Amino acid sequence: MQSGRIESFVEESWGCATVYSVGSIVGTEETNDTARDTDLVATDPEVINTLSVLEPVEEVESIHDSPRKCSLNYFTSSLFATIMEDALTKIRILMECNNELRIIKTLTDMKTLLALKYSIKQTANTDELENIDPKNLACEEYKIIKLDSDRNYVAQTIIATYIDLCFNRSYVALEKSIKNILEHDEYRAALEEEEAKNKNLRRELNKQLRQQRNHIKAAVYESNMIIEKLKAQVEDSVLFTECRSRYTDKWQVARTEQHIQTIEETEVVSTEVLEYYKLRTDHEQRVHAEMELLINIILNETLERIEDWMRKYDEDMEKVDLKIRVKRTDFQNMRDKRLGLEKTFEDHDKVMKDWCTFKEIREQQRLYREKMNKSAIMVQAWWRGLLVRRKLGPFRVGKRGRKKKK
């Protein structure tokens, strides 16, 4: 009886089974192409479910059209399929028995699982790097997702290769997986190169933006200086115009009085005495008017100075109030910053104490596990030695009897 290979999988109401092809020698007249009978051997349903998770069964059906350079003979393919079965069993034990990793992975995917449970429509994710933060690559979530993805990929690749070896005696699926890995590596290298180029481009653009901002600031400063200079010139021209107008008016009045006096002295000769008193009265009134005008001018100038000083006082008071408000704001900001630093210091102190406590508890638990493990090993060794010495259980000496007929 020769060991057969897997032909197909059968699933009925009684359970799942695997169909193996078994070669039997009928007689001496038959050649090496002996008839193959089929036997149904029940297998574990979880293995069938694990194999059904993968889609490459449809791909394996299309492998008949691929070139025969990856084909193997029956013995080699069976040998490699047996090795693949052992590898699949070990991988399944590794994936199913690591309860801690499965719990952490479930907690990580809790949002997605809840969305699937309540039938929430999920967005199509075409790129696996879309939801990854490049500034937080060392987080535990990414490591767990990467570990789970690598294990699933290895398991799927081995399963696809196993099915390909069993049905078609080839390893096209393994070759496709290797090509896929190489293409992914090339794609990631291209992404790294593109990221480096984008960083250089962003650095150059930031440099140009800073230069443009400095240029704009310089132009605005120069424009403000020109505006201030023009304002000063306008104020000076207004004052100069007022002085010239006042000088012209006074000069016209004095010139008119001079002409009138000359005419009177020339025309009126006989009335000198009367004119003398008239002129004296006129002179007194004029002096009084001039004095009154002078006093009014002095008063107006004094009032203007008072207004200027009041305006300067208001401006200085506004500046002082502004400085007081700025200092008050700075003081409040410094106080808030100090309070925040004190709170941060307290939080850090608490975290450090919690971490020290956690390390002590972890060390105690490790020592306890190590002690219990040693104790279990000692008890197991003692028990096995007892069984061996007293020839009990699997070490019992069997009775010699007749040999069973074949």
UniProtKB/TrEMBL annotation:
Keywords: Cell projection, Cilium, Coiled coil, Cytoplasm, Cytoskeleton, Flagellum. InterPro entries: IQ_motif_EF-hand-BS, IQCG. Transmembrane segments: none annotated. Its main location: cytoplasm. The keyword Coiled coil applies. Belongs to the DRC9 family. This is Dynein regulatory complex protein 9.
